[in-house]
Write a structure and sequence with these properties.
This protein has 152 residues and is of the alpha/beta class. The protein has helices at 17-39, 83-103, 123-135, and strands at residues 49-50, 62-68, 74-76, 79-81, 111-117, 140-143, 146-147. The chain is built from three helices and seven strands; from the N terminus they run αββββαβαββ.
Length: 152
């Protein structure tokens, strides 16, 4: 029995469609992943530097990120809230978060409030935000800062 060559060079070609499909799915996956990681950051916020700043030793389970601008506005979920309005609006948002956690079987004591405050933000505004969080039974807080390089 004699076999005929499939092509000019004697090799059979393969279907590349499944591999191209997988590559596009991976690209889409990583694009979504990058967008989620950037959602917790805002270009209006310039974090203060500190030699004591260090990354968390263990990943935080449930985080709620609040950002405070130099002008004292609170950014949560893409919305900018004025300081005078933040008690009512931020309190309402945190109450919804608390209700969602309760319905999911989670405790507010397990959640961590991450505060990303601009280096020029006033401490009084940050204290007011902490008070609003405590009024909604959130107990754990983390402050973000840039890690300053130690001079050798």
């Amino acid at each position: 029995m004699r076999l005929k060559a499939k092509g000019k060079d004697g090799m059979a070609g393969g279907d590349m469609t499944p591999m191209i499909d997988i590559v596009f799915q991976l690209i889409a996956f990583f694009m979504v992943l990058v967008n989620f990681s950037e959602a917790d950051q805002n270009k209006l916020i310039h974090l203060p530097s500190s030699e004591l700043a260090k990354p968390a030793e263990v990943p935080l389970k449930k985080t709620i990120t609040l950002q405070v601008t130099r002008q004292g506005k609170v950014i949560y979920g893409g919305k900018q809230l004025e300081v005078s309005q933040s008690r009512a609006e931020l309190g309402g948002v945190l109450a919804k978060e608390r209700e969602y956690m309760k319905n999911s079987g989670e405790k507010t004591s397990d959640a961590t409030i991450v505060i990303r405050a601009d280096g020029g933000a006033k401490m009084g505004v940050i204290q007011k935000i902490i008070t609003i969080c405590q009024d909604n039974y959130f107990e754990k807080f983390v402050f973000k800062a840039k890690q300053e390089k130690k001079k050798s």
